[in-house]
Amino acid sequence: MRAYRYLLKPIESEELKKHVLACIKEIEMNKNNYIVIKNNPNTYKIYSNEIKYIEVQKKQMSIYTINKSFDVRYSLGKIEKDLTLDKYVRCHKSFLVNLSYVENIKPNIAVLESGEEVPISRYRYKDVKEQFLKFLGETIC
């Protein structure tokens, strides 16, 4: 059992409703949340919450997870459709980063909790920063 949020008595029905709906949304997002990548002759099942970032070079995609990395032939456009994009942001034409693993954002660089650095294009910097701050606000509230 895991405590989700604490409510103080007397409990207001609107406050309870808001927290229950937020809890249900989080459960739905985490339930069976994986992508399947077919790369002849292998097929990979990758949990989306374990993906730190994705890099594409020409037609070769590298998916970096908390445990290992996968090198596959897949397009960034296809994988963007497979992932829930409220946690992921396209920070560069060749990179997609999971905001859950971003520790901070510097000009043109997203620094991950592991110390890895993912480039952010000048064109996308403002949008990436806004999405990161929005994501942090949703995580805290």
UniProtKB/TrEMBL annotation:
GO molecular function: DNA binding
PANTHER family hit by this protein: STAGE 0 SPORULATION PROTEIN A HOMOLOG, TRANSCRIPTIONAL REGULATOR-RELATED
Domain spans labelled HTH LytTR-type: 35-134
Keywords, sorted A to Z: DNA-binding
Name of the protein: LytTR family DNA-binding domain-containing protein
SMART domains the UniProt entry points to: LytTR
Superkingdom of this protein's organism: Bacteria
